[in-house]
Amino acid sequence: MAGVFLVAAVVAGCGALSKGDVDPTAGWSADRLYREARTEISDANWPEARQRLEALEARYPFGGYAQQALIDLAYVNWKDDEPEQALAAIDRFQQQYPNHPGTDYMLYLKGLVTFTPPSALFSNITRQDPAERDPKGLRESYEAFSELVSRYPDSRYTPDAKKRLTWLVNTLAENEVIVAQYYYERYAYLAAINRAQTVITEFQGVPAAEKALYIMVMAYDKLNMPELRDDTKRVLDSNFPNSKYYEQGFAEASGSMWNPVNWF
């Protein structure tokens, strides 16, 4: 029995030693913590940078260093493939510092975090069209970039955000067309019309409008609604004379010009 107590005491002692390990940053000033964090960021040492920034935010929660630490923490989490943590840091920053001069950058970073889902990195290999994925992240990216462009038209990040918005609008429109085609091919013609109509009303001037109108023409014809079919066909012919879809139907060339990996 005494042996058991001895072993337990030794284990407990080891645990106490591990818990009592000295924090190498203990006593560091806010300035030193931040300088060390910036050094780790420059070296792309994300875990170490995160530790320094989290320590800075916890020990010195007030003042400019804490604000900048939160900005950098969002960036570090994004670069370290931790999008959820990055978004959490951005949301916390926006709640705590709604009028901070760095808000434009945080909106830009928020758009970047959700702009390209991890699977898109391999779309140039798999040839999967980005529009075929769940558009939730793309919509979140669109909202962040739109807010940036609207609130900060003169921001240094706005020109790039506008380019990304162009891609996002086209990709979201293509996603609606893919869904519309999915419904059409499964004889859900009314649902196909509704999704195609979304492209016309919400994404004006996008290339996907041609296919959306073609789907509507075909769906109205299947529903034996000649007046709506002919009205839609006139719109299609007016905006896209000699539409390619009359000859090729739903056939598409492989790949997509809207792959963000090729753009940015």
Write the layout of secondary structure elements.
Elements (H helix, E strand, L loop, with lengths): L1 H18 L10 H13 L3 H14 L4 H16 L3 H14 L6 H13 L7 H4 L9 H16 L6 H28 L3 H14 L5 H15 L3 H14 L5 H4 L11 H4 L1
Helix pairs in contact: 2-3, 3-4, 4-5, 5-6, 6-8, 8-9, 9-10, 9-11, 10-11, 11-12
Protein described:
With 264 residues, the chain is mostly helical. The chain is 71% helix and 0% strand. It is built from 14 helices and no strands. It starts with a helix and ends with a helix.
In short:
The chain is an all-alpha fold and 264 residues long. The protein has 14 helices and no strands.
**What is the average per-residue confidence, as pLDDT, rounded to a whole number?**
85
Radius of gyration: 27 Å
As a percent range, the share of helical residues equals over 70%
What structural class do you assign from the helix and strand content?
mainly alpha
Strand content: under 5%
Largest sheet: none
User: How many extended strands?
Assistant: 0
Shape: elongated
Oligomer type: single chain
Number of H- or I-type helical stretches: 14
**Low-confidence stretches at least 5 residues in length (pLDDT < 50)?**
1-18, 117-126, 253-264
Topology as H/E string? HHHHHHHHHHHHHH
Our measurement of the CA-to-CA distance between the termini, rounded to an integer number of angstroms, reads 69 Å
Features:
single chain; 264 residues; mainly alpha; 14 helices
